[in-house]
UniProtKB/TrEMBL annotation:
InterPro entries according to UniProt: ConA-like_dom_sf, Cyt_c-like_dom_sf, Cyt_c_Planctomycete-type, DUF1549, DUF1553
Gene3D superfamilies in the cross-refs: 2.60.120.200, Cytochrome c-like domain
Classification via SUPFAM superfamilies: Concanavalin A-like lectins/glucanases, Cytochrome c
Domain DUF1553 positions: 896-1151
Domain Cytochrome C Planctomycete-type: 572-626
Species of the source: Neorhodopirellula pilleata
Molecular functions (GO terms): electron transfer activity; heme binding
PANTHER family: CYCLOINULO-OLIGOSACCHARIDE FRUCTANOTRANSFERASE-RELATED (PTHR35889), F-BOX DOMAIN-CONTAINING PROTEIN (PTHR35889:SF3)
Protein name: Planctomycete cytochrome C
Domain DUF1549: 653-827
Domain of life, source organism: Bacteria
Length: 1236
């Protein structure tokens, strides 16, 4: 497009035309010299120019038009910015054109229309500098016009930077005190300023002057930063979401003078002023209740303003979702999902309405309302109670807030920053039902969408207790009653989330049904054979037994493995193994018989003279050492080739060929529970299974447990490890990601097909901080995030190790640096060049006196293009869907989607085989291919079995549970775990028995809580308990109830106020058993070696000490009190902790211990008193953690954790301690931490 510069007489500047390539026509008009215009952009043409807009920017949107704006064309168009895009103006031809120096005047103007914004969101209209280019400092803002919103009102924001100083106050921002209402149509905005004169600042909205304040950095007379960085419209900082405009922009202009009030008044017709609003009358919502005996909760996202109710011209947002519950008690907001079922943040603020019908008795009652922010309570159309908008807390020195007083003795206190209103309400008659409606606002004003515990309760006239409103139940507002109800409420909220997510995800079901049908047809056409796992295992064992009986075969094997193979391994494999130097491999016979790059056959069986291997070693050309091979070694190789170059299987220890016995029922039910849902069976489950005499009970229990939703709690850790999920609670750190654990857990819980799950992962959908797969995209402190993701995906799902290729070609693999960055470019949707920090300097190679082990073949002068680097993995079969590849692309031009399809397409036979290999290793102990994440140069121990399992996965729509079912039903899985397959080569790996496996760290922790019947009473994993910071600044991972939900708790601040004492004692156990909280790299194999910490922390750790205590109200205490005799108690404990009955020896020893004092173990009522509860402590959060008292509070919590819960006072101390010793001994039994 042609860009016509305006004449600027007073500066005597630019008198020629220059060309700027752009994706839309930006028309810069020649303006009056009086207005000093240096650029104006009217987005008025649809003409296609060969340059793409960056990100989510739409053309030809309706702009400001007559009659409201009579001076603009009737077909005027604008650009719409979706919050993830921008337009840039190259300035290379005239770098000084948009630069403003000291004493220069500037006016920036534009038409804008805003629909929805986040409070505090600084959205760029236009600015120069701060593009994020590595060529310039990041704080190089020459000038910028932005908008910022607060409570539904958009204000002007003018920003520039001066040179940094020691005080670091080099940012200077002026914000108007007046604004215009969001969602109120088009508005003209402008700012004017003379650099060096802070008194010159002025702003205009719709042609009228508005006042403002310098609210950051203060007024300054210093000059602005000036350089040659670009001018951007709609964003800054590399398109960062927090700076990106969301709405419409038109008629942008920049002037090299301050325009007058009269000139700017002509831009729009006269209006009443920047903002005048009239509140709508308060009316109780009319809500239809589907069930009069239930409470209806509706959620409406996108409310205009969190600080007030509706004003004229506004309407209530549509209902987003609804929930049916039993009472006016809402402990939290449900998760939000997008149109594909991915987790996203709520469009804040959110209006929530709770309605129900109740028979309230006649009389004057007290009503209690608890809400965090703006709310109002209605009864039969009358407004009876309200709370006010919550002030957003800031900084780190907010005062410590004492715990709230209970509304009545023994009552439940209001939560931190929850408001409480108690009012009187008179009910005239108890003959009719009253309609109660609560409306409250969540989020907005810069707050997270976190409700806290919201409730409405009534204290009937003449009663002392408050009762939470419920149409059918009576629930006192006490800790005991509420805590008992919360698990059921949480289960109901989770059910709502599951329903919403699955309903949204169903929109893609047809697409995946068609893909799976095509895949099934292809696999069926290539193989219809019926097999079983045990048949494949037996086949290899039978062949080995026959070889062992052949004397000549034994002699050949002895000769080869003792004389020939050591020479090849020591002298040849380093260069001609996985590295395949010269295209030649000598570590497998089939590969050895193929020609290398020289096209000469290395080995010709029975003909040493024709074998290039023999020729090279005779000439001492190989191996490349000073000595070469000895004459004896050469003679050995000659004789071997002359005899046919046989490569027999090694001699096998006969014990490895003998299948181990099948395990008994007790071991089976424990193994099955641990492998499916990650915890042992309850005592009742174990007893039921052991007493079941039916022949098919194992098959039935396999199916039962595979249907259990808790299977996701166990299996999610596998994918978290493989994909290096690593959310940071404080600040981004090396390798930190978003919490995409929720995406993985949701997918497993929904039994999503694995190809669909991996596709959604690669597409990186949803919100990065809310738990969507977009969290996988984040890579903290990484100079090339997409290269890191390419490495993770390749190792996890293709068995291709590319870690070294980030900086150079892989020295021990065939992958190159260009391979990695080509795949990274596909994921990043743009060409990529390795950053300088990920390159080997040329000087490294120049200084080497010998050939380096590493090499760099990539041409850094040309970025790596988005292309698939693994063509050898894609089937060349003409029947494979590769030829109709684009059939399955919904966005053919999207290289990220192309990458997702290449990973998961049926043409990629490696993908399903890698997946089933992960499952095999998890259940049997060793993979069919080892290591599971690096297949190059590896041979499967059972290739036919691997292929069959891969085909089974495809034939059953990539259903992970189908493969698990096949494995668990096999004799192999149900045999005694005495195998040592992990130490065997693939040739000698027979799987006559599964390997013995220690419980994972998560299984150890979950088993401790599960077997003792304890709940995880730990902190919410966040540093923000008042909603004051967005998720992008400080994450919340919720309150864990299973071990997979924890993360690393280390932080660089090392302050007691930022500690989490309750969570830390759990993390200590996880750490001891090989768990990694900060997964900076993928983990395919955890460290399972024993160490002194493991027995130490189980025997003497705080967690074990607390959980084994028969504390007040605990399951262990109730079990001791309710069980009739010592022997029954012992059986219950063994079933609970070890999933079996005690042996005769154990029964004799432990029964004697428990029987001593059993009859009088319970104290008479007169001899004990209830244990007093600890006094509540104030909440420490980010906004007060630097207050001195914050450290003391957290240290007191730590002391309480170390002290542990009080013992149940009903039990006689001497007997109770013996009982606890028995429990302790079962936890420290070697069976407790091993899978049977």
């Amino acid at each position: 497009m042609k860009y016509s510069p305006t004449s600027m007489n007073y500066l005597g500047m630019l008198k020629h035309l220059f060309i700027v390539t752009f994706c839309v026509v930006l028309i810069c008009t020649v303006a009056d010299a009086d207005e000093g215009m240096i650029g104006k952009w009217s987005f008025g043409s649809e003409e296609t120019i060969p340059f793409e807009i960056n990100g989510d920017v739409k053309r030809d949107q309706t702009g400001p038009r007559p009659p409201e704006f009579p001076d603009l064309p009737s077909d005027n168009t604008a650009l719409r910015f979706g919050g993830k895009g921008y337009v840039f103006i190259p300035t290379a031809d005239e770098p000084t054109r948009f630069q403003f120096q000291q004493d220069d005047e500037i006016t920036i103007e534009a038409f804008v229309k805003l629909d929805k914004t986040r409070d505090g969101h600084q959205m760029y209209v236009i600015g120069k500098g701060r593009s994020g280019s590595p060529r310039f400092p990041k704080d190089n803002q020459n000038w910028a016009l932005r908008t910022t919103s607060q409570n539904g009102v958009a204000k002007l924001s003018f920003l520039f930077a001066t040179e940094p100083t020691s005080s670091d106050k080099h940012w200077h921002r002026w914000t108007s005190t007046e604004g215009f209402r969001i969602s109120s149509g088009w508005h003209h905005i402008a700012v004017g300023y003379q650099f060096g004169d802070p008194e010159s600042i002025r702003g205009w909205i719709d042609g009228q002057r508005v006042e403002g304040v310098w609210d950051m950095g203060g007024a300054t007379k210093l000059p602005p930063v000036v350089d040659e960085d670009e001018v951007w419209i709609g964003s800054a900082s590399r398109g960062n979401n927090s700076n990106s405009f969301s709405g419409w922009i038109d008629e942008v202009a920049v002037h090299r003078m301050i325009l007058s009030d009269d000139v700017l008044a002509t831009r729009t017709p006269p209006r009443d002023g920047p903002l005048k609003t009239v509140a709508l009358p308060a009316v109780m919502p009319d809500m239809t209740l589907p069930d009069p005996n239930r409470v209806l909760v509706t959620f409406h996202e996108g409310l205009g303003d969190a600080g007030r109710w509706l004003v004229e011209g506004e309407t209530w947002p549509d209902e987003t979702t609804r929930w049916s519950t039993s009472s006016f008690l809402l402990p939290r907001m449900p998760a939000r999902f997008d149109a594909q079922g991915s987790r996203v943040l709520w469009d804040s603020p959110v209006l929530v309405r709770i309605a129900g019908d109740f028979r309230l008795p006649a009389g004057t009652h007290r009503m209690l309302l608890r809400a965090r922010s703006l709310s109002r309570l209605w009864i039969d159309g009358k407004l009876v109670a309200t709370t006010q908008p919550l002030r957003r807390r800031g900084g780190n020195l907010e005062p410590i807030v004492p715990p709230a007083e209970p509304p009545f003795p023994g009552g439940r206190r209001a939560g931190f920053v929850q408001q409480e209103a108690i009012v009187e309400h008179t009910v005239e008659s108890d003959s009719t039902r009253s309609r109660v409606v609560l409306e409250f606002v969540v989020g907005g004003n810069g707050l997270r969408v976190e409700s806290g515990e919201v409730c409405v309760a009534i204290q009937p006239e003449g009663s002392g207790d408050f009762l939470i409103l419920s149409p059918t139940d009576t629930m006192p507002l006490t800790d005991a009653a509420v805590e008992q109800a919360l698990p059921q409420i949480e289960a109901s909220l989770v059910s709502l989330e599951d329903s919403d997510r699955r309903r949204a995800a169903a929109s893609e079901d047809d697409y995946w049904d068609q893909r799976h049908q095509a895949a099934r047809e292809l696999v069926k056409s290539s193989s219809n054979e019926q097999h079983s796992i045990d048949a494949f295992i037996k086949s290899k064992i039978v062949k080995a037994v026959k070889r062992q009986a052949d004397a000549k075969a034994l002699q050949d094997a002895e000769t080869f493995h003792s004389e020939v193979l050591p020479i090849l391994r020591d002298q040849c494999f380093r260069c001609h193994g996985q590295k395949q130097k010269g295209g030649l491999r000598l570590d497998h016979r089939d590969e050895m018989l193929k020609p290398g790059e020289s096209e000469q056959l290395a080995v010709v069986p029975f003909d040493p003279d024709a074998s290039e291997l023999i020729v090279q070693v005779r000439d001492r050309a190989m191996p490349p050492t000073d000595e070469g091979l000895t004459d004896a070694q050469i003679s050995t190789l000659e004789n071997w080739v002359a005899a046919g170059a046989v490569w027999p299987e090694p001699i096998v220890d006969s014990a490895k060929l003998q299948p181990s016995p099948l395990i008994d029922d007790a071991a089976f039910i424990r193994r099955l529970h641990l492998d499916t849902i990650g915890i042992p069976p309850t005592a009742a489950e174990a007893k039921a299974f052991l007493s079941d005499t039916s022949q098919d009970k194992r098959l039935r229990w396999i199916d039962k447990l595979l249907r259990d939703d808790r299977y996701a709690d166990h299996w999610v850790s596998l994918f978290m490890d493989l994909l290096a999920e690593n959310p940071a609670l404080l600040n981004p750190s090396m390798g930190s990601t978003g919490p995409f654990r929720w995406f993985l857990h949701d997918s497993l819980k929904d039994n999503m097909a694995l190809d669909r799950m991996v596709t959604n992962l690669i597409l990186m959908r949803g919100d990065q901080h809310a738990g969507g797969s977009a969290g996988f995209e984040l890579a903290g402190e990484n100079d090339s995030p997409m290269a890191a993701k390419a490495h993770l995906l390749s190792s996890a799902f293709l068995g291709i190790e590319m870690k070294c290729a980030k900086c150079h070609d892989s020295p021990y693999h065939s992958t190159t640096q260009e391979d990695l960055y080509s795949l990274a470019a596909m994921l990043g949707r743009r060409p990529l060049t390795p950053p300088k920090t990920s390159r080997v300097p040329d000087a490294f190679f120049e200084s080497k006196e010998r050939e380096s082990l590493i090499s760099v073949t990539m041409d850094f002068s040309h970025p790596a293009q988005a292309s698939w680097p693994f063509d050898d993995l894609i089937s060349s079969d003409s029947s494979a869907p590769a030829k109709s590849f684009e059939t399955w692309l919904r966005k053919p031009e999207d290289t990220r989607e192309q990458a997702a399809l290449m990973f998961t397409s049926i043409a990629n036979e490696r993908f399903p085989r890698v997946l089933v290999n992960h499952l095999w290793k998890r259940l049997i102990g060793t993979g069919l291919v080892e290591p599971v994440d690096d297949w190059e140069g590896k041979t499967p121990s059972h290739p036919e079995l691997l292929n069959w399992l891969g085909n089974e996965l495809v034939l059953h729509d990539y259903d992970i549970k189908h493969i698990m079912r096949l494995i668990m039903r096999s004799d192999l899985y149900q045999r005694e775990a005495i195998g040592d397959n992990a130490t065997d080569s693939e040739e000698q790996r027979y799987f006559a028995a599964p390997d013995r496996r220690r419980l994972s760290a998560e299984q150890v922790v979950d088993s401790l809580f599960h077997c003792t019947g304890s709940t995880m009473n730990v902190e919410e994993l966040t540093f923000v308990h008042d909603g004051s910071l967005p998720e992008s600044k400080r994450l919340s991972l919720g309150v864990p109830h299973r071990a997979w939900m924890f993360c690393g708790l280390q932080n660089e601040r090392d302050r007691p106020s930022l500690s989490m004492p309750r969570a830390q004692v759990v993390v200590d156990v996880l750490d001891a058993f090989g768990w990694t909280g900060a997964r900076q790299n993928p983990i395919a194999l955890r460290d399972t070696d024993p160490n002194v910490l493991q027995p130490g922390i189980l025997a003497n750790g705080t967690l074990t000490s607390n959980l084994t205590r028969a504390s007040a109200g605990s399951e262990l205490a109730e079990l001791a009190i309710q069980t009739a005799d010592a022997e029954s108690l012992l059986e219950s404990l063994f079933l609970r902790f070890l999933s079996r009955f005690p042996s005769d020896t154990e029964r004799e020893k432990f029964t004697l211990a428990l029987a001593t004092g059993f009859e009088d173990r319970i104290l008479p009522d007169a001899e004990f008193s209830e244990v007093p509860a600890d006094e509540p402590l104030p909440v420490v959060t980010w906004t007060n953690h630097l207050v001195g008292e914050a450290n003391e509070i957290q240290q007191e919590i730590q002391r309480r954790v170390q002290r542990g819960p009080a013992p149940d006072p009903r039990l006689r101390p001497q007997w109770r301690m013996m009982y606890e010793d028995v429990v302790w001994s079962l936890i420290n039994h070697n069976e407790f931490v091993w899978v049977p």
